[in-house]
Amino acid sequence: MCLIYAINIADRYVVSTVLEPIRIELKLTDRGVAWLTGAPLAFFYVSFGILISWFADRSNRRNILAASLVIWSAFTALCGLSQNYLQFLLGRIGVGVGEAGGTPPSTAIVSDCFPPDRRPMAMTVLALGAPIGAWLGANMAGAVAQAYTWRAAFIALGIPGLVVGVIVYLTVREPPRGRLDAIVDEIKPSFAESMRFLWEQRAAFHVVMGGGLCALWGWGLIYWTPTFLQRAYGLNVGQAGAVTGDIHLWGGSIATVATAWLLSRPFMKDPRRVVWLLAGGIGLATIPSIVAYWTHSLWVCKFMFWIFIPAIYFYIGPCFGLLNNLAPCHMRNMFIAVSLLVANIFNLVVAPWVVGAFSDWFAGARMTDAASLRSALLVLAPTGFWAAYHLYLASRTIVVDQKRAIGYTKDWAP
User: Fold this and answer.
1) Which of 215, 227, 280, 359 could bridge 376 with an S-S bond, Cβ 3.0-4.6 Å?
2) Are 379 and 358 spatial neighbours (Cβ–Cβ below 8 Å)?
3) Which helix (H) or strand (E) holds 369?
4) In Å, what is the CA distance from 65 to each residue of 83, 99, 110, 236, 265?
5) Helices 316-325 and 202-214 sit at what angle, rounded to 10 degrees?
6) What's the CA gap between 39 and 350, in Å, rounded?
7) Full-model pTM
8) CA distance 161 to 57
9) Cα radius of gyration rounded to whole Å, the chain
């Protein structure tokens, strides 16, 4: 599941590494290239995500996962073969449809392999795929694009996913649903019933919003970072990818592994401590995220990235784990799908388009440049504080809500 998640992230965010070459070749504005590369994937991702997750709560999750991986990998490669605006648009739509069936089945399968108090830790190991995938989408894709063309980067990332999809189908087994929960309800709820229960679980609502706003803040900034580095410091596409690539891989991996280790400690079985950790970490990391785009020193910028970028990873696994503990076993795919809907609308539609629109606005009559993009990114950076606030609010009801969902409180119940 970690490997699949890495492929998912790499195929989704490779476009940010080659955003500037795509914009130049297709003669687009910042707002135009943001819309082309982000919105089509996000709209179809969230639309099909709800439908596929509803189906996954009722059928074989392994089969859905394998098919989805093959579909999005094939369309990633086709993006590299596109020759015009329309072909690239259709390729991104296909990636969105395929990726809709990736993460919800993955997390649901893992949740049936670990008891509730170890799920946040297990999901954090799964989320290790995010920094690995981001490194692939930045470092490797940047090097391939610099050596060949931006199209070659898509092909290099798409083809391996086809092979992994076949391996998943042949080797992964479907675990019994809800086998480690204290409460196992065989009733398969309707979509409306799942949404009603999610709304009633106030902690789940705040975790969804907190995770979504983390994506708006962190991944929204990262989406434009390669372009920012190229404009502000005169780097080429390969050099810009290399600036953040190692930070994604090493900083993100260390942050994720450290979080998994911390969540495996007995004192972290209380879910309130998990959300307190997330709120505090995101709140503190928001400060260097502002400094990174405010400074005009590449050295200072890189240093701030080493603090800010690892923070966009450590919250992913714990949020998945918390949501799986706040949902009955036949609602888990749907809860994760809703969280991904919010996160991907924020970071693939809202953040790229808003930053692009602000960049065009700040540029005025002149062409968009480093100054206009810098100002736009500084508008987005403080939203990390908003995310931290929602995660803190989740701590108020998370114990009661978790007991309602899976009947599990252990010795930390009030």
Assistant:
1) 359
2) yes
3) none
4) 30, 9, 13, 36, 31
5) 160
6) 8
7) 0.76
8) 24
9) 20
